[in-house]
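Review form for a predicted model. The reviewer records the input and the model, then writes brief findings.
Reviewer: anonymous (R2)
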Amino acid sequence: PEDRVRLISTPGGGGFGGKEEPTVQLHCALGTFLTGRPVKMTMTREESIMASTKRHAEWLHYKVGAKKDGTLVALEAEVLIDTGAYASLGMPVTFRSGVCTAGPYSIPNVKTDSTSYYTNNPPGGAFRGFGSTQVAFASEVMMDRLARELGMDPFELRLKNALAPGKQTITGQTLEEGEAYMETLEAVRNALEKEKGKYAPSGPGKKIGIGIAGSYKNVGLGTGIPDKAGAIVELSGGRVNLYHGAAEIGQGPGTVLSQILAEVAGVPFDLIDTIENDSRLCPDGEETTASRQTYISGNAVKLAAEEFRGILEGLMQEAGLTLPFMADLEGVTGENRKSISWLELEDLAVKNQVALSAEAHYAAPDTVPLPKNNTPAPGDDPAKYKIHAAYCYAAQAAIVEVDENTGAVKVLKIIAANDLGRAINPLMARGQVEGGVAMGVGYGVSEQFVLDQGRPVTDNLVKIGVPKITDMPEIEAILVESPVPTGPFGAKGMGELPVNPSAPAICNAIYDAVGVRINSLPATKDKVLAALQAKK
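Model under review:
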């Protein structure tokens, strides 16, 4: 609150001894105010774990109905969410859990309730998956249970009910071109066929199991929220500068956006310099959330690059020159040459009073808030139910070894297929898949945030159980490309989704190996051993 900021920023004033400790940002604001210089605070690991928001804990209660042939007919679910002591992002996470409750399946009759509650625990916040991860665990374990109850192959059950273009989500949205969940399932099934006979128990009392799972998530903010981004492209000093507002948090937007610029404008990639997320210079890229930057900022860069290329082509035409350009033509002479160096091009622009700069802004396709009545009637306009512009999909198979004597679970391999529309940079996309699987493995078998009266007991990474590189399984990343018409070159986001199917695939594999269900995460050896003993 503004009055709180004023109190904290008053030299010599109170505030630090009050009932609420000021946030890190306010500490830094005070330091900047007092010193007149930027201030940075560095936390210890324990302080970081205590102060940072966490993935929301959720309790999930599911009931699923199907015909004998595997056709899903009904789902009822209740999702109870611990938002902690502050709402933070509890409301949008609760919404995301609600709309993703049923997973990537077409089900005609659905009733879901998702509710977040205040507790004395640390606040939940934004975390990769943003509410879709928790419900993916429940829905995919239920799909596995249903398949076994019906005596069906778990792939066939999912394929029979999978969302696809022309089908409706549980919110009433009719899906359009570029939705490829079925293709991810087929890709995983084909890859799994090649693994037959490769895995055998490493010793007595150990069993091999295979499990699968899928998930989906929105691309872009949707729900009627304006979703925009801008980009500027300019030629200066013989270099092409790209200004954009996408925050770099490890996912590499600068590389992908530069590739889009290079492809559209005909500019050599190594000639491009990116200036990103500087509010003095760059157009706003809005939030780096909702797996949106390749889709939204990518479209903005594409538009700016098209305008920039038009400027260059007009200038070249005036001079009697044609594309492609050459970056370095020093020493090349002759009146008949058809190319020009970038520095010469700048001189030509000055001579012709042409500004070698283009700025463009992109707004995502229109969406609407979730309708109160989200059951479309015959003849209804599908746009009335379009809460998101696009979705991404993923499927995974987990191969595990379970020790019946100790309950220890070793994940041997994860096969992960992701629908990303089109891969602008396949190597980076595979890196996103591998990173997501690594988080999913930790989420599934080892990581836990333990509290005692609202205070963290697990106050370092060892206690939390973050997996080491030696704990990682072999990961086979498969990119499924089904271009979405509205994306740059057909691309859409996918950075969050690879984490979602790992935990349920692992738990389904544990059941396949030793016949026990683990219904709470993580699937530690103590839980598995207790389930095995209870089964006996």
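Findings: The mean pLDDT is 89.
Further findings: The radius of gyration is 26 Å.
Recommendation: see findings above.
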